[in-house]
Predict the structure.
Amino acid sequence: MPVKRTVALRTAGSAMIAVAVLSGAAHPQTYATGDDRERRSAEVLQELVPSPDGPGCAAAVGERGSVVWEAGRGKADLKTGRAITPKTVFDMASNSKQFTADAVLLLAGRHRLALDAPLSAYLDDPPAWTRDVTLGDLMRHTSGITDYQDLLEAKGIEVTDPAGQKEAIAAILASRPEEPPGKRFSYSNSNYVLLAHVVERVTGTPFPTFLQQEFFTPLHLRMTLSPAVDVPGKAKSYDEKDGSFRPNSSPWKQYGDGSVQTTPGEFVRWADNYRTGRIGGAPLLTGVTEGAVSVGDVLRGRGIEEGRYGAGILLLPDKSLVHRGDWEGFHSTFEVSPDRNTAVTVVCNVDSPDHFRAANKLMAIWAE
């Protein structure tokens, strides 16, 4: 079962984009010279994945849009023995949320929607309570709306049963917020499923197609939004118990809250948009952190003691950006330095409790 209602959560989605975008030629890479950062980084990965014979992790570091170090360790597929390499594709889980939030900010910058607009404006026959929930509430997880995973499971639909966007939205709208909107941060995947729906209503374009056209293609990123699909080069995910590994997967096809498939290297290349604003310009860069809300003590014990949630990303006191993702055996950590020059991504295909700390160590090595 997935971990629920933390900054690390992420769920599945729908496959509307051709997976071929992930199989293009590798981008030119640059590597640091004249120091021992590569060696120290390799030691971090080896410490994270002691044995190369089980599932493992891949990691990448980017500087101003160029990948300066990347590596993989462990197996992408235990059955075939395929190894994890820098080109292995992973489900980025909740780290996908930043694209959904940025899609909303992009449309806001084009004056096609407003963050203070009510959710009800984008629904057919909206429940009365949706008039009190704004798009900004959804983006910052202050809507008070129950996580759709809980709602579906309450209806007897498990993560091993088929379920998609339609079922999730129906369950959300049939419920009521657990508390008044706008009052408190409460992480819920429902918020981002609804935001993806809003983008589709405003643009008339399937959400995966919108991301491809507006973000992935212009930035030359080998990414796709393809939930519950074995895209080329993708790792299998696993659960571990007493040293044994069991394949983990789900047929759920929700999107907006997760489901971006890519490599760590591509993800740190994406991070440079937080520096350049190439997509979205100043309105998007401002919107990423503007109005960010305190997450309270949600992150206690996770290596973060304080933070504010903005547009699909957590803003730390030192102005760095960070997010985690967990979904059915995939676990990811994404970090961007305060000056936005350095980015780190660590992704695993089995639960590795130290992957967040490994990302911190890599950031310390390369941003020092």
